[in-house]
Hints:
- Helix content is about 20%, strand content about 30%.
- Helix 5 (about 220-225) crosses helix 6.
- By secondary structure, it is an alpha/beta fold.
- The longest helix has 13 residues, at about 60-70.
- The chain folds into three domains: about 5-115, Rossmann fold; about 130-205, Luciferase, domain 3 (Roll); about 210-290, 2-Layer Sandwich (GMP Synthetase, Chain A, domain 3).
- The chain has helices at about 20-25, 40-50, 60-70, 95-105, 220-225, 270-280, and strands spanning about 5-10, 30-35, 55, 85, 110-115, 120-125, 130-135, 140-145, 150-155, 160-165, 180-185, 200-205, 210, 215, 235-240, 245-250, 250-260, 285-290.
- The chain binds zinc ion.
- Zinc ion binds near residues 126 and 128.
- Zinc ion binds near residues 126, 128, 191, 193 and 195.
Amino acid sequence: MEPGERIVSTYNAGPFAAGAALASFERIGLTHVPVGTGNSERLVRAIELLRPDAAVLTPSYAAHLVEWADAHDVDLRGSSVERVLVAGEPGGGEPAFRAELEEGWGARVTEAMGIGDIGVSLWGECEEQDGMHLGARGFVHPELIDPETGSALELRDGASGELVLSHLRHRAAPLLRFRTRDHVQVRLGRCACGRTGPRVRCVGRTDDMLIVRGVNVFPSAVREVVSAFAPEVSGHIRVRPRSGDVKQEPPLPVSVELAREGTARPGLADAIRERLRSTLVVQTTVELVPWGSLGRSEYKSKLVEH
Ligand SMILES: [Zn+2]
């Protein structure tokens, strides 16, 4: 974003945690239009009347607005918004999901990630979009651990594990080795943009992770595989474990929502099940459900329902 540009935000954040990210918009010289969540009509009206260059929202809400605009005959693609900044949950970095958002908004989608306890928007994509750079070097120290054992993992190129963060310069309530519950993949090679900070891609939340016969399964990874079947599917899924445990016996039940006016072609469920097996090494049962039957969110999507 450049000084002088306009941005519309949809976070109901107070001044303490995530609100600091919103204050940064003014700090870098943007005109900030804070709309908040809960009223898509008002948000779309603000976009039409105030013509922002960018919108910042959760990926779930960005996807919800594409559907909302479609149902209300609103031309989101033709709007002034050329950049959509997503943060708050995984999704913006999943290629198929990102492509859907870019198509629906007619805008470039970039992703940022932070955590209220440590700092907001600590990580963000550059123009190369090859993972999110740590923008808080010298302020926050990143480490990786194995989420099951808690043991440290080497922060090397290609490594994956749970992200652990420590404050280096926080004076009031510094946190040391804070577990973020974000499971990330690390990139350390030089980025074409010239920035040298490590980059991560968020694979999913450790909280959401299930272990199916020894294999770690992230619901966001299931969504990523399923989304590749668009336009036959809507991209909405629910993983429905049969017990409340992290460890699950296969097959893992997954509900997959069909596209609007979509009908299940013979073999679609089998094709999805087979792709999940070959990509994630997990046995599933795939139930196809009609469009609109899995709930939408204006904030963060629930991918698991026990
Ligand atoms: Zn870069």
